[in-house]
Please model this.
Amino acid sequence: MQVNYIHAADVHLGYQQYGRAERADDFARAFKQVCDRAIATRPDFLLIAGDLFHKRNVDARTVSQAYELLTRLKDAGVPVLCVEGNHERAFYNSSWTWLDFLSSTGLLYLLAPTHAGGTSRLDPWDEEQRLGGYVEIGPTRVYGIKYHGASAPIVLSHIAEQLTQLPERPFSVMMLHEGMEGQLPRATGGLSSSQMEVLRPHCDYLALGHIHKQYDFGGWAFNPGSLETCSAEEVSWQRGYYEVTADLETRTLVRVEHKQVARRPFRRVFVSVESCDTPTTLEALVLGEIERQVRREHDREPVLDVTLRGTLQFSDDALDLRVMEAKVQEQFSPLLARIRNSTLPVGYAAGVAVGEDGQIDRRALELTVLTELVARDSRYAGSAAEWAGVFQELKDSGLQRLPPEEILHLLERGYDQVHARLKDGTAA
Model:
């Protein structure tokens, strides 16, 4: 006997990327392809491992898109099981989200642990209350843990202790909206392999979400990536959803196949400005590089993301990016064109780290600037490098839109680490 299911995550319905409504429709179109596939193949269930929505306060059009697609799945007899991601958590003065609404209507099972007395507990699904930490679909038990960020290791340890008390099922799946450390270059945070391993004796398939690229770990933990491209930095990543077949008698995964959906083309172009001594020559170079690097799209207009890098040979006051974007739009007719100025003025790049491609390592430059700023205060000069690392981590957390309490936790942890190094003499 076998069980078949689809594992998706990070749908991000309602994301009007760069302020364009067309991009929100692209994200809905990507999810529709997964739903169409589920309706055509009739799996035993469909998993959404967090971030069905891009934000908490979604508009009526986005709710309508989700309602329509989930209704089609329900009518086709495909149960949808979901956990809450970091993008869709309730506001502090509310206990309800749009996921709670969809769960209350019977369109999906929103799974989450119950937190009481300082511990986390997985309760069985209560159909009347439409609440629970796990649900049984035929011979398969599916658990769900929403996003907890920095407190995730503690929650997982509590859950693992409880799982030892539950009777086994022929096959168990755990949904978890958390990232794994080391999967994103230069990014901090995420669960370690040992922290994830506490779940392994209790589930046969760990369905991950949160990080937007595909990866797997240990032959049992799988992350499909987002369906659409959520930022320019993600363009080269593999992403999509999984179709999974498992054998119930042997509790083994027979097939874990990663599939991609059709997405709007998203093209990145990097332009080195070193050879341009005027805005006119730079503009000509940008248009020429786009012509050379970007093939013509006949089906859907692409998103063009152009980055200027290197050392600018003239004052950046003479650089009008809006005019340049308008000319790119006129010549190539993309859905939208973004040009970002990541250059440095002449004379400023001395001593700055340079990568293998000959381009300035802007993150290293940022760390250098932060270190110099901290060192100006004599009280912290001896630990300037350590504090700069803490501040850079806080900035990353802000860009990831982590909740304030999690950012505060990172600051407290960084404070403790710096003072511990000072105490044992390891700080500079």
